[in-house]
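Regression test case RT-17, inverse folding.

Input:
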């Protein structure tokens, strides 16, 4: 994951094509912003439109007004004000000033785009004029329309989205935020360009499910909505290679409201190992990895690094059977949410072909638990080898900050009763638009755990497509390590409770993959 980058943007979008341009020699005229008079007060009294809009907000009633304004109330209230600014010359100069700002690349589990610093102290004349209008008379107008008492806090930025940029599902719920707004300064835009403002429906637990409404950005349109417990939204991925989605956006602040903590009801349960004939292990696994001397070498490396990748893990004939079975049309794929934590598909184990079920059972089996113990030195089986007190004692873990052996010792010291090794796992399909987030508590662990990923059918995958697994320490920005999808490869990573992970959003670049733009993983977590 990239560190925060800074770069000067001196680009100007013309007819949707982004080109590098020198600053214009033409003298700029200082302009004052004039908002569309059809929307706002005249002689200190409400216009008919304002009364209608206020009533519709209060009653959650859809409004489509003759002046172009619209209020959508499903899945939550969001208002659009087209032709927000009357002076087009002001808008063009505003866009030029915005492009002259310094942008910072923002890239993590939730988003990838570029953003300016807070514009509350920006002295560029049009930005300053717009800011004073938005956080002055327009704020007062919003209070009258919505009934929300807004204070004078200024929270305003410029955003720039280019090809493959995205902002995933979230609710904007930070302290004090009450109304979010976006003023679009985009070229002519179509649905094929992506970049829509998507509003999510929620379930009975107030968790986001699917997109209920998509709003296309349009030049000089201002959108605003109340930030609340169900205001889940996203900026869909930019699909155009030659258009730039420019906007000024921010929040109006007011008194905090109660936001009930929503529960995640989609978690998978832990299970103890299955009892299978040990011959199954020899039928499936590359014999090189069952050699005791090889297992000692793997264990030594794992205890030093707390992670390892085992290539060509399954026997080739078994792997080809798995690949063929993954193409089966009989398998039902279930969407996993909620969208503010994860979005991908898992196989319904009741519908998978027999060979895939056998692979899932292998990874859950008593024999495989013992093999993992031999690979890692972890107490995943009653016959597991004792940890070497000295091996790796002076080395830092790639994904946790302490050696594997030290972690095992801490577990032994802290646990009063002997725990029973267990696991949970699933067969996942990864396609365009899939991801998991750091908020995905499916990946959380009570103490320490071993993550295992067996990747399939990922030939042609490239890191720029997304889909890699990124590990970070809690409350730290620096990436600890990355696991890349590799054909027939078993990746093992040992983590503590302060280690988080996410699967990076898979962008439309994956369409370049051979055959079908998707790959698969048998994703498991083992606990001692």
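Golden output:
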């Amino acid at each position: 994951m990239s560190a925060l980058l800074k770069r000067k943007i001196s680009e100007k979008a013309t007819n949707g094509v982004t080109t590098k341009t020198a600053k214009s020699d033409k003298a700029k005229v200082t302009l004052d912003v004039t908002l569309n008079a059809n929307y706002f007060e005249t002689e200190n009294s409400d216009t008919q439109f304002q009364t209608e809009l206020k009533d519709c907000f209060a009653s959650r009633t859809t409004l489509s007004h003759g002046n172009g304004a619209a209020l959508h109330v499903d899945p939550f209230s969001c208002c659009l004000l087209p032709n927000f600014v009357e002076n087009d010359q002001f808008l063009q100069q505003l866009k030029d000033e915005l492009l002259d700002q310094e942008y910072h690349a923002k890239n993590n589990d939730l988003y990838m785009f570029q953003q300016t610093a807070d514009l509350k102290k920006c002295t560029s004349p049009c930005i300053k004029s717009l800011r004073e209008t938005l956080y002055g008379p327009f704020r007062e107008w919003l209070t009258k329309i919505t009934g929300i008492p807004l204070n004078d806090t200024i929270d305003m930025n410029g955003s720039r989205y280019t090809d493959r940029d995205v902002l995933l599902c979230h609710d904007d719920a930070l302290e004090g935020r009450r109304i979010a707004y976006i003023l679009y300064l985009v070229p002519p835009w179509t649905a094929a360009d992506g970049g829509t403002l998507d509003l999510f429906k929620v379930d009975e637990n107030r968790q986001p499910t699917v997109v209920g409404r998509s709003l296309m950005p349009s030049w000089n349109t201002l959108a605003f909505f109340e930030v609340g417990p169900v205001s889940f939204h996203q900026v869909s991925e930019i699909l155009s290679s030659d258009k730039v989605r420019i906007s000024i956006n921010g929040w109006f602040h007011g008194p905090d409201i109660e936001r009930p903590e929503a529960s995640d009801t989609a978690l998978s349960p832990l299970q103890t190992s299955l009892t299978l004939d040990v011959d199954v292990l020899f039928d499936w696994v590359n014999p090189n990895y069952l050699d005791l001397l090889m297992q000692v070498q793997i264990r030594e490396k794992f205890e030093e690094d707390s992670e390892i990748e085992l290539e060509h893990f399954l026997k080739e004939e078994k792997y080809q059977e798995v690949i063929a079975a993954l193409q089966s049309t009989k398998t039902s794929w279930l969407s996993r949410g909620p969208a503010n934590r994860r979005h991908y598909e898992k196989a319904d184990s009741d519908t998978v072909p027999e060979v895939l079920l056998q692979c899932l059972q292998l990874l859950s089996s008593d024999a495989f638990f013992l093999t993992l113990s031999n690979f890692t030195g972890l107490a995943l089986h009653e016959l597991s080898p004792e940890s070497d007190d000295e091996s790796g004692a002076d080395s830092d873990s790639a994904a946790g900050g302490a050696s594997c052996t030290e972690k095992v010792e801490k577990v032994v010291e802290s646990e009063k009763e002997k725990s029973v090794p267990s696991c949970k796992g699933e067969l996942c399909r990864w396609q365009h638009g899939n991801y998991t987030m750091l908020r995905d508590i499916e990946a959380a662990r009570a103490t320490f755990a071993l993550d295992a990923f067996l990747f399939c059918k990922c030939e042609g995958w490239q890191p720029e497509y997304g889909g890699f697994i990124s590990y970070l320490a809690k409350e730290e920005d620096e990436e600890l390590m990355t696991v890349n999808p590799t054909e027939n490869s078993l990746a093992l990573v040992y983590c503590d409770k302060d280690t988080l992970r996410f699967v990076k959003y898979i962008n439309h670049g994956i369409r370049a993959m051979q055959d079908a733009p998707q790959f698969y993983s048998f994703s498991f977590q083992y606990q001692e």
